[in-house]
Structures are given as C-alpha cells and as structure tokens.
Amino acid sequence: MMAAAWANQYDIKTRIIDKNNARIGRGQADGLQARTLEIFDSFGVAEGVWKQGFHDIEICTWLARGDEGIYRSQRVLSQKAGISRFTQTCINQAIIEQTFVDLLAIDGRLHVERNVLPENLSFERSHLGIQNVYPINVEVRHLQRHRTSPLKNGTREGQKSHIQIKSDEDADAANEQANGDTEATEKINAKYLLACDGAHSWTRRQLGLPMEGEQTDYVWGVMDIVPLSNFPDIRQACAIHSATAGSILNVPREDRLNRLYIQLGLEDNSNNRAQITPRTMIKAAQKIMAPYTIDFKYCDWWSLYKIGQRISPKFSGANRIFLAGDAVHTHSPKLGQGMNVSMQDAYNIGWKLGAVINGTAKPDVLATYETERRQVALNLLKADREIARFYSRDSEKKQNGADTEIPDFGRIREKMHEFLAGIGITYASSILVAGVVDDNAAAVFANGHSGMHKSVIAKPALAFNIKLGARIPSYKILNQAEARPVQLADLLKSDGRWRILVFAGDIKDSVQSTRIKELGSALAAPDSILHTYTPTHKPIDAVIEVLTIHSSPRTEVSLFDFPDIFHPYHEELGWDYWKVFVDDKAYHDDDCGNAYEKLGVSRLEGCLVVCRPDQHVGYTGALEDIKDMERFFEAILIPRV
Amino acid sequence: MMAAAWANQYDIKTRIIDKNNARIGRGQADGLQARTLEIFDSFGVAEGVWKQGFHDIEICTWLARGDEGIYRSQRVLSQKAGISRFTQTCINQAIIEQTFVDLLAIDGRLHVERNVLPENLSFERSHLGIQNVYPINVEVRHLQRHRTSPLKNGTREGQKSHIQIKSDEDADAANEQANGDTEATEKINAKYLLACDGAHSWTRRQLGLPMEGEQTDYVWGVMDIVPLSNFPDIRQACAIHSATAGSILNVPREDRLNRLYIQLGLEDNSNNRAQITPRTMIKAAQKIMAPYTIDFKYCDWWSLYKIGQRISPKFSGANRIFLAGDAVHTHSPKLGQGMNVSMQDAYNIGWKLGAVINGTAKPDVLATYETERRQVALNLLKADREIARFYSRDSEKKQNGADTEIPDFGRIREKMHEFLAGIGITYASSILVAGVVDDNAAAVFANGHSGMHKSVIAKPALAFNIKLGARIPSYKILNQAEARPVQLADLLKSDGRWRILVFAGDIKDSVQSTRIKELGSALAAPDSILHTYTPTHKPIDAVIEVLTIHSSPRTEVSLFDFPDIFHPYHEELGWDYWKVFVDDKAYHDDDCGNAYEKLGVSRLEGCLVVCRPDQHVGYTGALEDIKDMERFFEAILIPRV
Lengths: 641, 641
Known about the structure:
- The structure is a homodimer.
- Chain A has about 650 residues and is an alpha+beta fold.
- Among the domains of chain A are: about 1-50 and about 80-210 and about 315-365, FAD/NAD(P)-binding domain (3-Layer(bba) Sandwich); about 440-635, 3-Layer(aba) Sandwich (Glutaredoxin), CATH 3.40.30.20.
- Helices cover about 25% and strands about 25% of the residues of chain A.
- In chain A, the strands form 7 sheets. Chain A has an 8-stranded mixed sheet with strand order 5-4-13-14-15-12-16-19, with helices on both faces.
- In chain A, helix 1 runs parallel beside helix 4, helix 1 (about 1-10) packs parallel to helix 8 and helix 8 (about 340-355) packs antiparallel against helix 9.
C-alpha cells in the first residue's frame, strides 16, 4: 500500500494484487516509529493514526525482587525529546491499511485486486537492460471468492493452508468471469515487479533466494485484550521480567486494547501449539505479573510465534523484481520495528520506480534500493538480537534469576534510540547521496557502487545537524507572505519532487543579497538544472522545487526582495507565495525562530541542501556550489528531450 | 447544520428542510473566529478547516500619504497571543457546510431535505406549556427540482425571485411523490422549530417580528479572485484606506483566493447595481491600491451589499420557535463575525433543545437562548458600528482626507479583541450560570430571569482566570495513566454531557487527599447528583462526567490513589484510564505543566468547576461545596424516574 501511494503520486500504470479476499481486520503489527509517522504525514495521512493511536512515551521495566513479585526498576523515555515531531505510536495494522485504502480512494485510480493468486513468474533476461519493454511475465489466477478467506483470529500471514487451490482444469474458463463461478487465469506483463508477500514470500522462492540466519525453537504468545488489571503501568509500554515465570512485553493500544507478548516457555511443536489458548496465555501472564492481577473478558486477536533473525542475501532480481518487508527480513516483534522497516522498504523503492518509469530518473538509481535497505535490515537484526537477550533469559536459557545478569533495558534502548525512531537511518554515499571528504573517506567510497558521486563532494559542515543520507530534520518556520508557522517537513510532501532548499541567510546583508541574486540568475538561466530536467509544458517546479528559507526579520523584507525564480509567476495565478519562508519568531507559537540554529546553518551565510523525494539529504553545499549541484543531478536525472 | 450536529449527538428526532436544491458552492461568508474553531473541534471537525484555511495572523492598515498613494501605517496582531489554540481563519462557507454534511454522514441518521419550501406555520397556543405534545404545524411544499436552483454567482441569500411558487392547486397531489413530477405538500408537526432562514427570514415574518435598526444607502462590492498583484501585503489581511478613492478590506483565503470588500462610492439603486461588474469593481480597487497594481483573470464569486445594523426584538416565539443567525441580526461583514455569531446561536440553542427533548433538562433552560444570544447580537452591532467608522469616511461622509480623522484601526481591534475571537462571550447569571457576590451583585441579578440561581453563589476567586459564563480556557495537561499531553478542551467534547472538573490539587498532601476522598464518597453516594440525574441502565458518566486534574508529580501518584468514582470500573472494560489527568511537565511538549497557574487555581487546594455541554462555565466552588453544586444542577436537570 505504501508503494501504491507512490505509484499514485507518479501517476504510473500499476496493478496491486492480493491473494486474500479481504484486508486484515485485526491483530498483526501495531507499532509505528516516529519516522513512519513522518512518512505518513508526507502523504497527508498521519493525523488520524496519530490521534487514534496510543502514544508510547515512557517505557517502564519491571524486574523480580526475590519471591515478592515484580517491582518497577526503570522508567525510560521511549524516544529522546526533540528528534521528531512524532513519537512512537501503537495502533492496529488494520487501521494503517485502511488509511492507505482511503488515501488511494481519493484519486480512485488504484485499488487492490483481491482473490488474485500468482502462479507463475518468468522474465526475459535478454530484455532486462532495455527500457520500455515488459520483460516480466506473471501468471495469476482469479480465485472464486468462497475459496479464500480473510486472515482469521489466530492465523498468521503466509499459512497457505487457508487457500485451497483447485485443479488446473478450472483454468480453462480463463478470462470469462474474473470473480464469477469459474476461475480465470491471466498473464500480466510488467516492466517492474515489487513483491511484498510476507515471510513465506512466493516471489522470493521463485527467485531461488534463501532466508539466511537463525531461529529459536521457543514459542511466544501474542494477544490483544481489553485488560482487567490493577497493574499500575498497564497503560504504559512495559518490559516485565519475572523471577522464574518468564517475560512479558505490554503494549497499550488504541481504544482500550493492550497487546501482550508473553513468553510461554514451551518448545515449538504441534503438541504444545494445540494446547495453547488465550486462557493458557493469560494464566502465564498472571504468573509473570504477580502480585498484580490481570484478566480479560474480551480478546480481539491472538497468535503464536517463534523468534528468529533471518535475511535474504539479495533484495532484488536484476533490479527488475524487488522484494520488500518480511519477504526479505524477519525478526522478533520486540522492538516494534517490523511494520516500519517493511513500509520504509516500499517507501524507498516506490519513488525510485516512479521516477524511472515516468522517465525523469535513470534506471541506475534502482540499484540503490538493495544497498540502502539491506543495510537497514542488517542493523535491525543486530538490534533485535541485542534486545532479545533482555527477554530471553530464564525460560530459554534456563539460567538462574539474579537481577544482575539482566541486560539494562534502558541502556540498550538509549544506545539505539535514533535507530528505533527510524530517524537514525542514514544511507551511504551513492549515486543518490554525495560523498564527503573526511577521515573515513576511503570507507565511505568502499561502500559505494557504480554511479557513485566520486566526484561530487558535499560540504556537510555548512549544515552540521543535517546529515547526508539521513532524512532532514523538521522545525517550524514561517511563510514570508502569510506569517503562518509551518513545519519544514510540510513543504517536503511525498509528491515525487526533488527539493533544493536555499538557506538564504540574512539577505539584508548586501554581500548575502548579491550571493542570492547570483544563485537566482543561475537557476533561472535557460540551461539551468530547472530547465534541463523539467519536461516542456510542465511547471518549472514539477521535477525540482526551489524552496527558500531566509533568516532576516520577516517584517523587514518582502517576497519581492528575492529573485523571481524563487517565487515563480503564473499568468493566471500570479506570484507563488508559498515558496519563500523565514526562520523568525511567531506570534502564536513559541517554537519558531531557531531552525537555523537547530539545523546548524549559519544565519548570515546560509547554504544549499538537496532533498531527495523521500526527504533524505543528497547534497549540501555553499550558495555558489551550483556546478557541483548540477553534477549531482546529472548522475540521476534524465534531461528533457 | 450546527444545530443538526447537536441533534445528532442527542439522538433526537429531527428534520432539516431547505428550499434550495443544492448547498452553497462558493462565495458567502469566509471568516472563522478562534471560538468557532474551538466549537468545530468539540465536534471533531476543526482540523480540515484549520489546515485548509488561511490563518489571519497579522492585519496591516494602509493609509494615504497625500497624493503619493498608500503606505503601511500599522501592523497589528489579528488576535492576542495565548487566548485560544486557534487563530482567526478564512475559508469558504461552502467548505464549512461540507464539513458538517460529512459529520452528519458518519452516523447517516440526519440529512438535509432539499427543495422543501415552508408555506404555512401555525401553533396551538393552549399546548405551549405542555411537554410531549406537538404544538407546531408547518405546511411544506416539496418543490420540483427544476423549480429551484442553487445560489448563483453574484446572487445573494434571501432573493426569493429564484423560487417561482406555483398556484395552490398543485398541492392537491400532496404526499404522492415528494420529488416527482407533481408537487407534494406535507404537514409537519413538531415540538420545536429552529429557523435559520436568513436575513429575509420567512419564519420571523410569520411571527410578526420586525428587524429594528438602521441601513446605509451606500453599496459595497465583494469579490473572490486569484489576485495578480505586486502589493506586498496581498497575503495578509489589510484594511486599506485611500485618500479619495475609498476603502478596501483584503482577506486572503484558502487555495490562492483573496476576498476583497470594495467601497464603490455609489448609492444603492437599480441603475447603479446594473452597472457594476467584477471589472468595474477591480477598477475601483486599482484606484484605492495605487501605486500598487492589482488585477485578476479568475473570479470565483462576486456580489453587492449595503451596510446596516439591524436586530429583531425577540429571538423566540413562546420558547417553542427559535430564530438564529441572519434571521434575527444583520450587520456588515467587516469584522468577519456573521457566520460565527450565527453558528454560535445554533450552538447555544442546539444543546438546550437536545437536553429538553431527550428529557434530561427542564424546559426552563430554553428561555436562556434569547437572554444569552440577543446580548451577543447587540454587542456585535455595537462593534460593527464602531469599525464601520474606519471604512466609511470619505465616500460616504464626503469629508476631507486628512489622516488624523481616521479612527485608529489597531486600537479599535485591540479594544474588542476577545469579542472578535469569540472568546470574550460571557453569559450573564441565569439558571445556567451561578451568581456571584461582588460589588455589582445587584446588577448581575437585575439581568437575570425566573429560574435564576439567586441562591446558588459561585466562588470564582478559586479559579480566577476561569470566568463564570464564559467558555473555559484550554491548556495542555497529561493523562495520568499514559503520560500523553492533551488539551483540556479535548475532554469537553460536544456530546451533550455536563462536566464536573475536579481540580484535585496536590493529593500527596494528606489534608488534600482527605478532601478528595470525601468528595469521592459524596459523588459515589446513592443519592449523589451522578445517580440522581443518570437514567437507570446508562453509564454513570452519561449525563454528568467527572474529570479530575491533579497537581502532584505524575510519577509519584497512581490512578489508584483516587476514589473509584473518579475512574469508574466496568466489568468488561476494566478501569477507565481516561478520566484522571495531571498538570505536569511533558517529555516532548514544552507547553505543559502550568495549567493551574494559567487558570488561576491553587496548586495545593484546587477547586470544582462545572462546565455546561457548550463548555461555558456554570459554577465554580470549593471541593466541599457539593451541596451548592447539587442545587445548581437541581434547577436545571430532571431526576431520573
């Protein structure tokens, strides 16, 4: 659905197929990182989720005190203050999915085709390097509605037993009635294929890619209940570690729900699985949480799972077929990362596919999907192994219960807090992220690949809190013409555009004013990047948008002190008043007026920052570095014909 | 639509009829006060409007400098900082209307019946005093669709010439086909009637009520355009006063629109009206704004109007038929108040009708509609006359152009800023607002009417920034169980409930803890107000909700330190974690932790505050004043049977 949101923005021809006959109704993932909410916000859909979800602000650790039961040993911040305008939020995956269903429904162009089962995948290798051919062939079967069912209470993604495939004879009636009494098959030819088909990915198996890593044999229970409890921290996220009865991760949720992950202390086998019910799970929880009580009368969903950390060696087939999410990495749910990293996989490949297919970007950019996202998955697996140590003592390792051996939960989270929030994700130097000259320069380039900007060197010191390869932080600035406060991020919508952020500095200074005028002339020139990469008949900001943020007092300058190209004129719509902003104090919001300081940009001299369509920073330079910026774009974008 | 929102909340049987065949599409009113947005927010619909609308933050005054054209003479804040979480917002009335259409569509129970024209109104006077009869009879005609048309570009509300009434013979086919080829008539019997039928109100005329006041003969033009202009303040609200060419009020809007109110310097007669087009209007604007340029290629809507201040002597007929909005008060659009005061009329009568019809409140409360809202209308007319002086010099009074004679625009607005924001509206002592003992006590009571709480005296000094009769200010507090910041106003949704806000003070203090326990016992007693006024089989918070805000450090107390009645237990849903809050610092929001100070409540001792269903404060007392609070409710609510 995340990739579909991009496909919708780029207006590319897209089909979305799902073998299930309905979307998820309950259960599944429920943790959203701050970064994921930022991404939602870039599509304009964060607010409903943010309001309805539980805000995971504090996490409490409870440990055992001898035989006297548990006590609160630690209260840590779920996320360090100031790193995002959102905090970790817990809400049902079904609501997330509905949010994107609703988003697509606004334009009404794309929708999920349900009851469509892929049966055969082939691609013409000789065509792989050629653009504008359709080398991928997928044969799909349009299932009869009664043959599939939505994921039920307690079932898990990828259990194929829910789908009873009939014999091939039925396929004869192909193309007659897609959803009627007979089952049609269909051949879909595609330029690109993105598979988000879960831990048992059919597509990954077609590509012959294994999942590499380890899996424990101990089974955990997970349940969504409305708790009846006198536990004082029931409405806070808690890691609870009893002396001998095992561990619980308690995650409050929307409405009155709580998600409990409960260590059941059983090996995974069919005998054990058959014994486990919500009742046996709550009994285990009662032992762990004693002397506090917990029970339920309403259980919304429950399931069982094993902990493992596994990853696919490749995330793509020939940069034509891409795999995302659980299809290429699986891990425990303990860090609330799964849904996030998976959606962010799709967020990463989505804009690249959009730009390549619509002809603005070179196919070279597609290779960065694997290099950027596989590294994130490796980091996630490492983090997951580390946090697993906190929970998995006792029952799984059969050690004794001395508190001293338990890893410090707070310190583990503290160490990885930027990663957990998704804010810390920093893509290495590549065609999409300029290089830097520093002590580790060799290492930086060693991670790169063909097409990397060996020759384009950024100057991150000009914006020392804006990290190359990371998403740009957002602070509030004011619209010059309207005095209205706005988050910088609100200007960086996921609409497929690159942005040049012109931190113009103090244009009341005559030298600075001259620098800005020269930059304006360069950008307005007939051979400028704006004119080179913008298709004829499209607005000048269609591919690369120039946004200006200056630092002069707002009331002492006017829009007309800036070059026209910074606020382009349209003959029917007049001047564009929504491209020039100022870092100044606001009348009704104490939180404005220090964006330059927070971003580490000189209030006098400013700088240039290039943001990719996904808000990650590709280039930082001085106002004069327009040639370097040109070379940066030259490696990525295709000139208009 | 505002009243319908209430009718939906109270689940009362309601019909909404409109003679027009479509809702407004463009033009009309466009200014929303902060208070109106607060009310929208209480129904959960502020956000879309707040995001899409123009935020009117600064207002600039431009005056003439001899013959050299205009200059910016003043830059004033549209609204003083800190008085509301919203600021004045400008957005098309059509979007407002759609917002409420969408709100009603969520439940789907109420909708506007269009093409329905009222033709006869009668009521049985002998039944007026009897509850549960239907003394009002309205005969309506279901018009054929082609006989009505939506308000067109340049037409104004109330121009009946758009509706061609056929002869009465057609009425014979009544009840056959409401919207078919024949025109049906229908008799509607009602307990209550609310008329929001505009300046030419048919209902007001049926009641024989005149509009009293004055009307000038000078005609103004109003137009919505996308401006092509080099005027530096085009995206700010501006009052522009030229030397001899007249005045303009410029109001930026959603999308790229601007609303211009232009003084045309013409007397209102059919000859002059016929001459005026958008082109003549923009020419007048060009003269006023010289040396700056203004023009348009796109005009969204335009109209003409005369300034007048008129009011009906009564807002109700026998407290069975109520009139709201333009039906009982008209004035100029210069203060952006019309849509607000009108919607707030309906907001005021809406909950009262809801509570009387659903049987929780005594019919006596209905008389407060006229006393509360007519005073607001009188204040509005006074303010409108005052601001009119700024605009109406020159052309209308033919005086010379010396700047010194122009009233100081900023000072006028400054003086009335709380009124303009809607925040200052304070209802006098009545059955719904307890009395106070102070130097003006006699005056307060003189304004009262039968049913007034002569014997219930509030203690506003215990919360000296919470004004009896005004809406309670909102600041951020934290949920005790979840640590999540929330606006106090978010707890005061327009769902028909009264709220007792228990400012519990510091319950770590043993004396205070005892006071709270005693209050809890009194509220939990079988004969408490909660039990007396809550219908059997309804939740204990269905009519009066108790919300607690304490001032102890959040992490040093727990929900279980408060009496059960403050967080009631439900046998399937467990404890209610969303009724106890704390005024403490937040991790991610610097704006928390000073609500007690801002509200003027002692952090140690706290107090009780009763909020009406419309968030206006009815009573303030000490934690022991439960008897006074009981008497307050006794005058208003009906005990369960």
